[in-house]
Write a structure and sequence with these properties.
The complex is a heterotrimer of chains A (299), B (504) and C (644). By secondary structure, chain A is mainly α. Chain A has a domain of 208 residues. Chain A has eleven helices and two strands, in the order H-H-H-H-E-E-H-H-H-H-H-H-H. In chain A, helix 1 packs antiparallel against helix 8, helix 1 runs antiparallel to helix 10 and helix 3 crosses helix 4. In chain B, strand 9, helix 10 and strand 10 form a beta-alpha-beta unit. Chain B is built from 15 helices and 14 strands. Among the domains of chain B are: 202 residues, Response regulator (Rossmann fold, 3-Layer(aba) Sandwich); 122 residues, Response regulator (Rossmann fold, 3-Layer(aba) Sandwich). In chain B, the strands form three sheets. Chain B has a seven-stranded mixed sheet, with helices on both faces. A five-stranded parallel sheet of chain B has the order 2-1-3-4-5, with helices on both faces. In chain B, strands 12-14 form a two-stranded antiparallel sheet. By secondary structure, chain C is of the alpha/beta class. Chain C folds into two domains: 255 residues, ABC transporter involved in vitamin B12 uptake, BtuC; 246 residues, 3-Layer(aba) Sandwich (Rossmann fold), CATH 3.40.50. Chain C has 26 helices and twelve strands. In chain C, helix 3 packs antiparallel against helix 13 and helix 9 packs across helix 19. The radius of gyration of chain C is 28 Å and the shape is elongated. Chain C starts with a helix and ends in a 7-residue tail after the last helix. The chains are: A mainly alpha (299), B alpha/beta (504), C alpha/beta (644). Chains B and C meet through helix 1, helix 3 and helix 4 of B and helix 3, helix 13, helix 15 and helix 16 of C.
């Protein structure tokens, strides 16, 4: 029973961490058919912004909001630097954006190293207790308030994003722009603005993720790399373009890692292997992911 | 839009894009083209330029070209191990200024060449390869950088003097004389086996613990030998190993591992890793309700499972860990350390130099890089040259040296400067005051000045290793006892320490 | 896009649409026999000799030179896949690791002398490359990259868990490394080991250059480029795209593996730590900045980066910030100069030459060679199992193709008789192009039967169908624009003049002979369609009607039984249509059966022997042109439609 609860808790927490980052990949892909490889580094930037603000004395909620606002700008900056210069192109055949976004992530990490320095930094949780309750222990497994906030926030965000994508004009604009940019432009949609908004949203999601994740993982440079890769796998596994897919993908990885860690004490080493093997298997069998839609090539 | 407007619209868009893009394109192409041209021609020029001056590099020469002696430093200056890099920088900066103020070595000034290994062992391998190719570099200070194990084959090939300041080659028998090829390597870091022996002895003899488990970072233990070492040292003192958990640097979730450990209920958990992860570990064990309280609680089954946490230096012994783990860093957490590491002692020069040249105070570990540097320079001094073989012989025959902290030495059959008698046990204390124990104990003198700014920090437990330490460093221990450094129990009327004291 | 292309047609230049990463570099073709094309290699050899001699005393520079050489080998490997085949791999550094283990650990462990390690390094890495290819070659561009990325991350993770055999994160030290002090030229100085390694790496680099030189000028190289420019067209021309992608992966991985073996000699260590996504990214950037799709580009990029780091200023500024350097260069290169340094150099040379021609300067190209008459005609390959008596080339029965709920083709029966021009007409959306796609194997039919010469085509890939005698042109032109006109036709003949991979790599006499034959045939067909004097031009520079002719020449190159023409007259002027009709007549007279899809009624009626009419995926009429024209149903289906 303990094992079961442990897997549940570990899977949900680790999975939510990954899902939060995967949302960022997803929202950008939904509008542009591009995978923003700089997503992980946007998370790190947001985290260091939040830390710097708290060090200046601002309480955590204030830092949270400031970090989100700043990250909107960071997202737009990434778009201007990595995507705009490429002009018009078809993302599925012309994959230069892979290199530009990847390049931006490398640049961002080094810039952080140069300016803020590279030590791991703690960040206070948004709330460490609810009505005085800090930790629950179920079947010997600890569940803390930050963990609960993490999971709940993830689910709320999924619902929110899905509403955004299906019910709002912006969501429709995303879909239009991703399917046929030229027609969307002719129909009166400001495609450049839409793409910028997408990236800004990705930045905001990164900031939200950073603050929710920091209590577990601290703010550190390596976050961008490790988490970025895992979240990318999650987003592709679940199906790029599908918010539902992002959260499912995140939980698949979270639970896989938790199960492997429960089975063997060498979970640290075997976890990544299992995750990659699962990833490859899914890609070979169903490249569009769990919730993705297969594309037909027109001749 | 009618067709004409449509055409115009598209045309305008395309033209706008084309002209803007043409400019960026041209600029970019010019940039890339000139970068390539500059790079290649610059390389050719530089190669031509340096071709002459490196003549005779590495061969048996007595003198040094130019008026500086260069020493390579390989350490993690960024990434999760960055605090080690900071310690290294501070230590060496103060040491170099002190040595240059004394006139340098053989009339030459000392300069450092730093290389950052970050979080990637490959950087260490490449950094060494690069530095070893520079004939003006007389030796390497390897201060905790990743990639040490991976570079050992190159040490054997190049025979450049390497000071393993924060790396351990001794425990897995890759240090001379166990490994005949590693003659040019000398170690300062407490060997893991020695540290584990100290911790096990303390756990068994002073606390009476029976069972233990190990939580190990496999990235920092590339040959995965820590488990073997741990079990061996437990066996020596009659304790039993009941668990082993491995994780990778940067891991966040110890949940499943903790569940297994909880079932096994070890009295003591040894955790080896860097503070970012070990902090996470104690936070999560605290959330589980199993934080360490004191030894009586450990031994009382009715009080639940509250294992005693024993850590590695750099894992649980330093301020950055206490910073990250906050309240979950419990007083009484134990680390193994060495006498020379008590850098705040007035006996030890490093604190004074750091204050003088940098306006900083040491946080722990600063004695080793400085001592490493000193060793290299003494070798040059004694050998009268930077010939690699001669330097190595010189180090082996220099005899006792004293520089940054306590006296140390190397010999032809001992390439690590720590002996078991140098080992001490260190505990985490909080400035808020000592825990209540019977008989009571005082927080040492260090809490009034050098540690005043820290809410928590490592302090020596004097009594457990007092006799051994007196053998190794008699004057130092006299200072410690007389001036009330470290955590000492009630003193007997004759000045000796009470043996009844069971702290925490 | 459209406007830019019109401009291109008028001025004879191919307008580079910025940001079109991955679509290859404009080749510069020289006359065979022009020695200047060996100049870059000569420069390389001279550089190596000079470098080794002048830097013999500087270990730092020797090491950098060694790194430059083996990274150049790795870059050339990546270039085969990325530059020539158009596939972006984000995990190639894994092959460096695999090659190191195979060549430096495993090979000596089974008793082979250390210096032979490169064989196992190549073979081991190539095998893994093929494995990876098998996993992803059926996927679209972006997803291939994702799979390579996952693979590239998986390999280091496997090394970590297999710590007993592979050493875990620490890797394995190389106990039996090559004693490079015995390499000729290593001398007896203190760095003879390092100097010898440099020369060893240089030798391997030159061997790699030799192999790649042969590869890109062989039918294999052409096939790779065809896949890059238009995979669909490659497949219907007889290139088994899947197989070729696998071989491209394998070759590319093999070269990176050899580089890994050499790297292991330098550090006396094989470690998974040099195989992560960052490293893979660096390989790609090296190739891109140097010049994708060229031979000199990767070498230039690798030498530039490795030796550039030797400059003290560069080292001090960027050592700890290599991410910044590579990221920025990558960004710049892809966004502004996707063709890289060498690619851009070539563009300027081409532009210069073009300007000289415009100003009345001499045309440097040699005149097209004359070719024997029998090679200048379409031919039909004689098949052993040909159903000669029947007279039916194509028999389609009950063919149905559904897309979801829509039936694009419905119970279609059609017979095409040998030696005729059979037209297929119908309103827009009646299923004509779908029909061709199904017959050539690009779509799988929902039901029905297709027989070519009495043999069912079921289950055969487009390439296999090409082998059985089917060829086609495309409505929207699928030419390989950045290859020459001649090369386009030569790829068309891919299935007819076969040379194995090994022979191509080594450029054996047999392969040279076969190449010559293929080239003659291609020239012949160009003569036939009237494009011979444009043979060495880039296909993308041709005026529009010539592009259509080129597609026909390409299709004829496979000596097909049946030639399917998909709206060949679309977009043509009246006089051009006249010439086209004459051409088609000549094709028929040479014995090739033609199935013609068209809208131009004059062309159809004047040219065809039989006409079939489709409407909503069904055949509504079939017969001679006169019968069909007066058929009431046909008139009804076309009600309101004007001739173009």
């Amino acid at each position: 029973m303990t094992d079961f609860v442990q897997i549940l808790v570990s899977g949900l927490t680790v999975g939510s961490v990954i899902a939060l980052v995967a949302f960022g990949y997803n929202i950008v892909f939904a509008a542009t058919r591009i995978v923003n490889f700089a997503q992980g580094s946007m998370l790190v930037v947001a985290g260091y912004i939040a830390f710097s603000v708290t060090r200046a004395g601002v309480p955590i909620w204030g830092a949270f909001l400031i970090s989100i606002l700043a990250s909107l700008g960071v997202g737009v900056l990434v778009e201007i630097v990595a995507i705009k210069p490429l002009g018009r192109f078809d993302p599925s055949t012309n994959v230069g954006w892979i290199l530009t976004t990847f390049g931006v992530s490398l640049i961002a990490v080094d810039l952080i190293k140069k300016t803020v320095g590279a030590e791991a930094r703690p960040l206070a949780p948004l709330a460490s207790s609810i009505f005085g309750w800090k930790v629950a222990r179920i079947s010997g497994v600890a569940i803390t308030v930050p963990d609960v906030i993490l999971v709940v926030a993830t689910i709320l965000i999924v619902i929110g994003l899905e509403q955004l994508q299906t019910r709002t004009a912006l969501g429709r604009a995303f879909r239009a722009v991703s399917e046929d940019r030229q027609t969307a432009g002719l129909m009166g949609i400001n495609t450049e603005l839409t793409v910028m908004i997408t990236f800004a949203l990705a930045g905001a999601l990164a900031a939200i993720g950073a603050v929710l994740i920091a209590p577990r993982l601290f703010v550190k440079l390596d976050l961008g790399v490790n988490l970025g890769v895992q979240a990318f796998i999650a987003a592709v596994l679940g199906g790029l373009g599908s918010t539902r897919g992002a959260i499912v993908g995140g939980y698949v990885i979270g639970f896989t890692t938790a199960i492997v860690s429960t089975i063997t004490s060498e979970g640290g080493s075997w976890g990544p292997v299992v995750v990659f093997v699962v990833f490859l298997a899914v890609l070979v069998a169903r490249p569009e992911g769990i919730f993705g839609s297969p594309a037909v090539e027109k001749v | 839009m009618n067709p004409e407007q449509e055409r115009d619209f598209i045309e305008r868009q395309v033209n706008k894009d084309i002209s803007r893009r043409k400019f960026i394109e041209w600029a970019g192409k010019a940039g890339i083209g000139s970068a390539a041209a500059v790079s290649l021609s610059g390389a050719v020029l530089a190669a031509c330029g340096s071709g002459g001056s490196s003549s005779g590099g590495g061969k048996n020469i007595a003198g040094v070209s130019g008026d500086t002696i260069k020493v390579g430093v390989i350490a993690p200056f960024s990434g999760i191990g960055a605090f080690i890099g900071t310690v290294t920088t501070n230590s060496l900066s103060a040491a170099v200024q002190e040595l240059n103020a004394r006139g340098g070595v053989l009339g030459k000034k000392i300069a450092l060449v730093n290389r950052d290994t970050g979080i990637d062992p490959a950087n260490g391998v490449k950094a060494y390869n690069e530095l070893a190719g520079d004939p003006n570099i007389i030796g390497i200070l390897w201060c905790g950088g990743l990639g040490f194990e991976q570079t050992q084959a190159q040490f054997a090939r190049d025979k450049l003097p390497v000071m393993a300041v924060f790396n351990d080659a001794y425990s897995d028998k890759h240090l001379y004389p166990d490994d005949q090829g590693q003659r040019s390597v000398f170690q300062f870091l407490i060997p893991t086996t020695m540290a584990m022996d100290t911790l096990s002895q303390y756990a068994a003899h002073d606390r009476g613990y029976k069972t233990a488990a190990l939580v190990n970072d496999v990235v920092l233990d590339p040959r995965t030998e820590n488990q073997g070492f741990f079990e061996a040292s437990l066996a020596k003192v009659g304790m039993k190993s009941v668990g082993y958990e491995s994780y990778q640097l940067g891991n966040s979730d110890f949940g499943p591992a903790l569940q297994r450990l909880k079932s096994a209920r070890p009295d003591m958990i040894a955790i080896f890793g860097l503070s970012g992860d070990t902090a996470n570990f104690v936070i999560q064990i605290d959330q589980l309700g199993s934080a360490y309280i004191d030894t009586p609680t450990v031994k009382d089954p009715s009080k639940g499972w509250h294992p005693h946490i024993f850590g590695s230096p750099g894992g649980t012994g330093d301020h950055s860990w206490a910073d990250l783990a906050k309240d979950s860093a419990k007083p009484g957490t134990i680390t193994a350390w060495h006498v020379g590491g008590l850098v705040y002692l007035p006996e030890f020069a490093i604190a004074g130099w750091m204050n003088k040249y940098l306006g900083k105070l040491p946080t722990g570990g600063e004695e080793s890089p400085a001592d490493g540097l000193y060793t290299l320079l003494q070798a040059v001094q004694k050998a009268g040259s930077i010939d690699r073989q001669k330097m190595v012989s010189a180090i082996e025959t220099l005899g006792p040296m004293k520089f940054a902290s306590s006296t140390f030495s190397f010999t032809a059959d001992r390439h690590v400067n720590k002996t078991p008698d140098d080992m001490i046990v260190v505990t985490l204390e909080r400035k808020s005051g000592p825990a209540a124990t019977t008989p009571p104990y005082q927080l040492g003198h260090e809490w009034s000045t050098p540690f005043a700014r820290f809410p928590a920090g490592p302090t020596q437990l004097v009594r457990p290793t007092l006799e051994a330490n007196k053998r190794a460093q008699p004057e130092v221990m006299k200072t410690v006892i007389d001036q009330n450094w470290g955590t000492q129990c009630t003193k007997n009327p004759d000045g000796t320490l009470s043996n009844e004291c069971k702290i925490h | 896009m459209a406007k830019a292309e019109t401009e291109a047609r008028d001025t004879g230049e191919v307008e580079e649409v910025p940001g079109q990463f991955g679509q290859g570099v404009l080749p510069i073709y020289r006359r065979p026999g022009e020695l200047i094309r060996f100049l870059p290699v000569l420069l390389l050899v001279l550089f190596i000799l000079w470098f080794g001699h002048s830097q013999a005393d500087s270990r730092k520079w020797i090491d950098l030179g060694t790194e430059a050489c083996y990274l150049a080998i790795a870059a050339m490997g990546v270039n085969i896949l990325l530059g020539y085949t158009g596939i972006l791999s984000l995990g190639h550094a894994a092959f460096f690791v695999i090659g190191g283990y195979a060549g430096a650990i495993f090979s000596p462990a089974i008793g082979l002398p250390p210096w032979t390690g490169f064989l196992l390094a190549f073979v081991g890495a190539a095998a893994m490359g093929a494995l990876l290819a098998v996993m992803c070659s059926h996927l679209r561009g972006f997803y291939i990259s994702v799979v390579t990325f996952a693979f590239g991350a998986l390999i280091p993770a496997i090394v970590v868990v297999a710590k007993d055999q592979l050493g875990g994160p620490a890797g394995r030290s190389v106990d039996h490394f090559v004693d490079t002090s015995k390499v000729p030229g290593a001398g007896h100085g203190p760095f003879s080991l390092q100097l010898g390694l440099f020369y060893l790496c240089a030798i391997f680099l030159l061997v790699t250059v030799f192999l790649c030189w042969n590869l890109v000028r062989s039918r294999w190289g052409r096939a790779y480029m065809a896949i890059r420019e238009s995979e669909v067209a490659a497949r219907v021309s007889g290139v088994n795209a899947y197989l070729y992608k696998v071989t491209s992966f394998a070759l590319s991985a093999g070269f990176v593996g050899v580089a890994g073996w050499l790297g292991a000699q330098r550090f006396v260590l094989v470690s998974s730590q040099v195989g992560g996504p960052d490293q893979s990214f660096r390989y790609v950037i090296t190739v891109v900045v140097g010049g994708m799709g060229t031979l000199a580009g990767p070498i230039l990029g690798a030498f530039g980066f490795s030796l550039g780091f030797g400059i003290t200023w560069v080292q001090n500024t960027f050592r700890d910030y290599q991410g910044l350097l590579f990221g920025t260069l990558g960004l710049l290169a892809v966004a502004t100069a996707p063709e890289g340094t060498v690619g851009n150099l070539r563009r300027y040379v081409r532009a210069y030459n073009l300007r000289r021609v415009k100003k009345g300067g001499a045309v440097k190209q040699a005149p097209p060679p004359t070719v024997a008459p029998e090679l200048s005609r379409p031919a039909v390959r004689v098949r052993d199992d040909a159903d000669a008596g029947n007279g039916e080339v194509l028999r389609v029965s009950g063919l149905t193709k559904r897309f979801g709920g829509v039936a694009a083709l419905s119970e279609l029966d059609l017979v095409v008789r040998r030696g005729t021009v059979h037209a297929l007409i119908g309103p827009n959306g009646s299923g004509k192009t779908t029909f061709i796609n199904v017959v050539t194997g690009l779509y799988k039919p929902t039901s029905g039967r297709i027989e070519l010469d009495g043999v069912s085509l079921e289950g055969l890939s487009p390439a296999a169908r090409s082998g059985r005698g089917l060829a086609r042109t495309f409505q929207n032109l699928q030419l390989w624009r950045r290859m020459t006109v001649l090369d386009n036709v030569m790829v068309g003949a891919h299935g007819r003049y076969r040379v194995g991979l090994l022979r191509s790599l080594l450029s054996t006499p047999k392969s040279i002979r076969t190449e010559r034959q293929a080239r003659e045939r291609a020239w012949g067909l160009l003569h036939f369609v009237g494009l011979a004097d444009k043979g060495r031009d880039l296909a993308g520079t041709l005026p529009f009607p010539d592009m259509r002719r080129l597609e026909i020449a390409r299709a004829l190159a496979s000596d097909p039984e049946l030639l399917l023409l998909d709206e060949p007259a679309a977009g043509m002027q009246v006089s051009e249509i006249h010439d086209l009709a004459e051409l088609i007549r000549q094709v028929r007279d040479a014995g090739v059966t033609v199935l013609l899809i068209e809208h131009h009624m004059d062309l159809v009626m004047g040219l065809s022997d039989t006409v079939s009419v489709l409407d909503y995926g069904q055949k509504i009429a079939d017969g001679s042109p006169a019968d069909v024209r007066n058929d009431r149903r046909v008139v009804a289906a076309y009600l309101g439609e004007e001739n173009a």
